[in-house]
Amino acid sequence: MSIPTTAEAAEIIARAAGGTVVDIQRQLRWRPTWFAEVERDGEVLGMVLRGDRTDSEAFPLHHEYTFHRLMEEHGLPVPHVYGFIETPGFLDCVLMAKVPGQAEFQNTSEADRDQVVDEYVEQLAVLHSLDPQVFIDAGIDHPRPGEDPAMAGHRHMISRYRERKVRPDPFSEFCIGWHLRHLPSANGRLAPGVWDSGQFMHDNGHLVAIIDLEFGHVGDPLEDLTIWRMRDTLLGFGDFAKIYSRYEHFTGKDIDLEAIKRHHFAACMGNGLQFGAAWRDPLPETDVMNIMQWSSETNLMATDFLGEYLGLDLPTLTPPPALETRHDTVARQLVRGLGSVKVDDREAQHELRLAFRMARHLQRRSEIGAALDEADIADVAALLGRRPTDWFAAERELEQFVLADATVGKYDEPLTVLFHQRNQRLHMALGSAGSTMVRHYQCQRFDGAPSHIVQF
Question: What is the pTM (predicted TM-score) of this model?
């Protein structure tokens, strides 16, 4: 199915809303989304047309729509949904109301931020108190017979990863092996949850709406206390120990911190599972650098966590010196040219920005890629006791080693160190030295020790 042009999206909205689109803009993001102003019955309404994913589906779009609709029907603060739209030849879409406010906390006082977060946690507690059977009867994904509810979402992600895997991925296989040997337990908890938590709009010091419900399902509600630990590195929600205490206040139940830790690890490995195939075998519209950066960042969060959990002192690497090559002049000129071109069309300018980031990544790979590959191969050689012929052979042989140890975990500690180093090397080549693309934000630690920002 094709992505509508902005003009075609306007026609879709006009037909579905029964009004006239007076303004529309496609959002410059990886998922097809348009913000529109629609005149209907003498009133101008803000609307959002949210398209289906093109290369990395979590749950089907209709599943997301159903979960969203059920939350609205139960009085939870979510954008009003006008309906699910099937348009022959184009992606399916959901039409919903545009809500005011912001998702970040720029120009927000600490007191207002804490109030907003508190209201969000309270609404999570309300959601978790709803009858899960209502969601299950509506077709929302839920635990299989005999399955621990804590595994419902994770099982789905692993299954989707297996369906789409296109080449060796030793780190994801290592994470899956560790996860399956350290499964969280719901201990009787079962509730609808958003899972991809920490996404909401706020205004004037209060919560406006919970948004982006594509991961909603029925499982262990404590999953909702984990994913936003990663989002916190950019948004800053406050001290998670206090947030968890407020959740206990609203639910009247003690949290299971060990389950939360294990859910957190599974969440950290989630981007690698979901987007691995997308950046290894991209579609024309895939934002490769965005997906690579997300996956690399959260992969580092996964090894950060394992270092804390296993009591390891993980090394922080420094980039190797740049290698001078005969094509440096052309690479610099390409990056300079793509970075300086300006056009009036927002969507075309965005596409130029994506091309610039890819060119800058290739330029950095030209400078340090050979040294990074050599270091990766040397790490695998030290583990195996033999040197693979090249980087691709090292990738295959490392995955074989990981799979052989998956149910045992004898090599968890050396593999954690090895993968932490490999993850850093991948990260430091995403963009130019010192850029935001090669900056790593560590999550809040569970033990209260300080976390850091690592700039490669």
Answer: 0.96
Q: Is residue 252 part of a domain?
A: yes
Tens digit of pLDDT for each residue in 223-239?
999 999 999 999 999 99
What gap in Å lies between CA 27 and CA 45, rounded to an integer? 18
Domain count, the chain: 3
Distance CA 137, CA 132 (A): 9
Q: Kindly indicate the confidence band of residue 329, based on its pLDDT and cuts at 50, 70 and 90.
A: very high
Say if 280 falls within a structural domain.
no
If we measure between CA atoms, which residue out of 246, 269, 307 comes closest to residue 452?
307
In a domain, 69, yes or no: yes
The contacts found for 431-434 with CB under 8 angstroms, 24 or more apart, are 431/357, 431/360, 431/361, 431/364, 432/360, 432/363, 432/364, 433/319, 433/364
Instruction: Determine, yes or no, domain membership for 286.
Output: no
344 and 248 share one domain? no
244 Cβ contact partners less than 8 Å away, ≥ 6 residues apart: 225, 255, 257, 260
User: What is the residue range of 188's domain?
Assistant: 110-273
